[in-house]
Automatic annotation (TrEMBL):
Name listed for the protein in its UniProt record: Uncharacterized protein
Biological process annotations from GO: DNA catabolic process
GO molecular function annotations of the record: endonuclease activity; hydrolase activity, acting on ester bonds; metal ion binding; nucleic acid binding
Residue stretches spanning the membrane: 299-320
Keywords annotated in UniProt: Disulfide bond, Endonuclease, Glycoprotein, Hydrolase, Membrane, Metal-binding, Nuclease, Transmembrane, Transmembrane helix
Organism field: Rotaria sordida
Similarity comment: Belongs to the nuclease type I family.
Highest taxon above the source species: Eukaryota
């Protein structure tokens, strides 16, 4: 127990600063998604990507992690802390079921954030900066929600307080970090010659084949969460001997845990990429039809005003004529 506390202090910084797939995971998801955007969607979101990034969606995918990171945003990071709780949700330990009204009070969790930012992105009552932030948050959170431990247990803060050794007996790390980055890094090193581009090509083929999710609703956030929760209970918190991982002892995980879990990481990255693309493509369509209907509304208003002016003008002319006629009648009858 005292060892855990020691590690807790040692890794306090990590606990504070690690909020999702590492930059590589988020960048891969955004790249997978961008490869599948309709050209109209792509040019729409391009408006929001700073021009020196040449429309590269991957380059903004980790922004929500960076703004709350003392090291990356030393002057402003405090101002963004409210957004920290939007990167994840937690369920009661081993409860294995996500219930919005219990686990996402006042929408302050990743499900609420996904809803919030997909609405704000296409709601023109928000200004350019607000919509840009909505896009950056949305791209990031679609990634986070597919990292199973972003829907992990409350008792250990989604695996942040479960500490131990992964492949390496010298450096203790937490389980959340194993899932954010470690498994993926070792996977890329071993199976893809340390070349992220090769890994990307492989994930892209997965996205088109196995995990091509036909007939999904573009915004079924609850389904994505339920999947993460079920992986959490089925495999994430179980060691090689199917013994439950928890904060009371250090884990020692290696070859077997790695082999059992990298396929799930591939699957979640591919799913996130495909779902992010279909979400953005659909939002782009919703936005166009919204824009069209507001244009039609404007047209109708203009027509009504025109018609009203016409009616008043006609009426005015008629009344004027009638008055003149009366005057004339009065004059002639006298
Ligand atoms: C783009 O511009 C921003 C702000 O001027 C700067 O912080 C960032 O480093 C630039 N990025 C690249 C890739 O040039
Ligand atoms: C896009 O951004 C990502 C993440 O910053 C970077 O790794 C990648 O090289 C960029 N791609 C291009 C084509 O600039
Ligand atoms: C919705 O977005 C706004 C602007 O970023 C933020 O202030 C608010 O906390 C968000 N709410 C949720 C539930 O994400
Ligand atoms: C173990 O950790 C050390 C220190 O961080 C690192 O240099 C080394 O590469 C790691 N070994 C493996 C097998 O990951
Ligand atoms: C998808 O929807 C179409 C049309 O509703 C249906 O014909 C098809 O069987 C569905 N495919 C799957 C895999 O559910
Ligand atoms: Zn995150």
């Amino acid at each position: 127990m005292s060892i855990s506390i020691f590690y807790f202090i040692l890794f306090y910084q990590e606990i504070l600063y690690v909020f999702g797939w590492g930059p590589i995971g988020h960048s891969l998801i955004a790249r997978l998604a961008q490869s599948q955007l309709d050209s109209s969607t792509n040019s729409w979101i391009n408006n929001y990507i700073p021009s020196n990034l040449s429309g590269n969606l991957s380059a903004i995918a980790s922004w929500p992690d960076e703004i709350i990171d003392l090291n990356k945003n030393p002057f402003d990071y405090n101002k963004w802390q409210w957004s920290h709780e939007l990167h994840f949700l937690t369920i009661p330990d081993w409860n294995c079921k996500y219930i919005s009204r219990r686990d996402c009070l006042n929408n302050r969790c990743i499900e609420g954030a996904l809803k919030n930012y997909s609405e704000r992105l296409i709601d023109n009552n928000y200004d350019y900066i607000q919509q840009q932030q909505a896009l950056f948050f949305l791209v990031h959170f679609v990634g986070d929600v597919h990292q199973p431990l972003h829907c992990g247990f409350k008792g250990d803060f989604g695996g942040h307080n479960v500490i131990g050794f992964f492949f390496n007996k010298t450096n203790p790390i937490n389980l959340h970090y194993v899932w954010d980055s470690e498994i993926m890094n070792i996977h890329i090193n071993r199976h893809f010659q340390s070349d992220v581009n090769l890994y990307y090509e492989y994930l892209k083929s997965l996205m088109f084949n196995q995990y091509f999710l036909i007939n999904e609703t573009y915004n079924d956030y609850k389904k994505w969460i339920d999947e993460s929760v079920s992986y959490v209970c089925k495999q994430v918190y179980l060691d090689d001997n199917n013994i439950k991982l928890d904060i009371s002892r250090n884990f020692v995980l290696g070859e077997e845990y790695f082999n059992r879990n990298w396929p799930l990481i591939d699957q979640r990255l591919a799913q996130a990429g495909r779902r992010l693309a279909s979400l953005l493509n659909q939002l782009s369509k919703n936005r166009s039809s919204k824009k069209l209907s507001s244009e039609i509304q404007t047209l109708i208003i203009i027509l009504c005003i025109g018609l009203a002016i016409g009616i008043f003008a006609t009426l005015g002319v008629y009344l004027y004529k009638r008055k003149k006629n009366r005057e004339y009648d009065v004059l002639t009858s006298e």
